[in-house]
Write a structure and sequence with these properties.
Structural class: alpha+beta
Strand order of the largest sheet: 1-2-3-4
Order of helices and strands: HEEEEEEE
Mean pLDDT: 85
Number of strands: 7
Number of domains: 1
Strand content: 15-25%
Shape: elongated
Length: about 200
Amino acid sequence: MKRNGFTLIEIMISVTILTVVLGILFTLATNLGRSARIQEAKVTTVDEVRTAMMFVTREIRQASMGSISSGTLPGPALTYRVAIDADGNGSAVDVAGNLELSGTRTLARDVNDLNGDGQTVTQLIMVEGTDVRVIANNLLPDEDLNGNDTLESGEDANGNGLLERGLWFESAGAGIRVTIQAQRRADERGFLLPSGVIETVMPRN
């Protein structure tokens, strides 16, 4: 006897299998999307830190050693002046043979929101007079809350057992050791993804 259509049990089994398959596909798509967002956040953070370090190292290399605020180091800010061609003669040296220098420049966190963008301690800026230039965003917080250069209970914000400064300058022989650390969240629920670069720079002037 020929049967037309499907029985109720067959339909229920088919719907159940279809639901399971769709659930697996949805889970895979969600995980794949989250992995892509995590990778994008990692790449963005690493790129931002490296770009900031390239700018900072270029500035310090051009700085006059005598103008660097080495007396305030180690610390979260660096003040200096760079060699410039102030008189337009094609060289950073004037007719009397003296090195021509820019105004005083400072690399630091934008604690007082000098550029008015609402970002403060998470932003690295360079200030020269009234000019403010953003160098990087999403800096890690300085975990050394009491300023004793030691990681103590309650200071390890991300639980990795390291004392992280976010932005730090210190003397290293004839050079300056620069630390820049940033972090980014992959999504609203994701954990923070940190990245950091440490480099020692030798001023040339």
